[in-house]
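Hello Y.,

Per our agreement to keep a running log of every chain we model this quarter, I'm adding this entry. I've kept the format consistent with earlier entries: sequence first, then predicted structure.
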Amino acid sequence: MAPSLTSVDQEGASNTWVTKSQISRAIFPDGIKTSGQHPPTYHEVRDFQSFPHSIHAPTLWRAEDYRDNPERWVHHFSDGELAELSMAADSFRAAGTPLTGITQANFPLPHLSSFLGSVRKELLNGKGFILFRGFPVEQWGNHKSAIAYMGLGTYLGYFVSQNGRGHVLGHVKDLDEDARQTDKVRIYRTNARYNLRSRYAASTLILLSQYFHADPCDIVGLLCIARALEGGESDIVSVHNVYNTLRAERPDVLKTLTEPNWYVDRKGEVSQGEDPYIRESVFYLEPKENGRVYCKWDPYFIRSLTRFSSAGLIPPLSAAQNEAAEVLEDTCNRLSLHMILEVGDIQFLSNSHILHARTAYKDHAPPAPRRHLMRLWLATPVSEDGWYLPFKDRDEKKRGGIQVDDTAPRAEFDAD
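Predicted structure for the entry above:
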């Protein structure tokens, strides 16, 4: 049954529901459990008339402002910064603490932490992206690189589970899974890229070659371990630039994207008693004075919903929704900034006001390594300058992510 407007609004005045249960450190070594996916708090979802006519903020940027100015968004690690990361990683490894228990307390960065604090502010409330260069993955190997990468990440947010298996250190790598099995396969485990184009036959949404999306967390990080032979490159776009463009060119499309009538497939990654899909909006407004526009969108999780709509459990996408999805994708492509991640690069992006995509790719022939990126999903609660989102877990340290029951967090050094 689809969630109703009333059944999801009974969480009460306090949003501390996740922390009321006892968290076992035997399962969650840092004492914090990923909150997981939830429907929005529907009475906090604002209608289109409440949205601004245009956005003027540090989160608004244009690709032409950065395309030929890499010094504005690329940071090269200094020898001193790498030495500090190396020392912290070696000390953490010697202590024998599980990687899922890494925190700022057991991964001290007395000098680099100040800079990372400014990076965090820029990610959350500024342009929303940065590219670090010169992380010595080939010298350090996967184990030490993973420790240093996750340790660095703790200064930007709290790592959350990325799938139903509890992976808090994800691996973007082609594992020869069939991307056409959209009700089961996650796209990051394939080499496909889908391009959003609508077809009105049977009111279904067909994805052909590429897409822009946001992950269900506040900040996403990608560390390049190995590049592909061809492709696998990154495109990003300012949500607020897209919003202003749609407001000027297609306000009808923007209105459709603000309506909470979009169903999202959870691909079986659900806890006991939860629905297998969630009804959401694409664009939200923070439910507070001078609230900012927030985007939550991943078209790949819409493609597989025909198994529910065919059974009459949810409505199929309307013609207006098909068109809105196509126009949104086209607008993102038109306004995007392209970047190439080299081995040792780390890209961090805000998921609140950045959408990102990647090109399809072709790997090197064996025995050369396949394209491989280590991925982090990081959460930033309201109490630590995170966005005030219309979801009941907004105050949780590990809000968002994907959590199935009490599945323990895992941090493997390669894809499995």
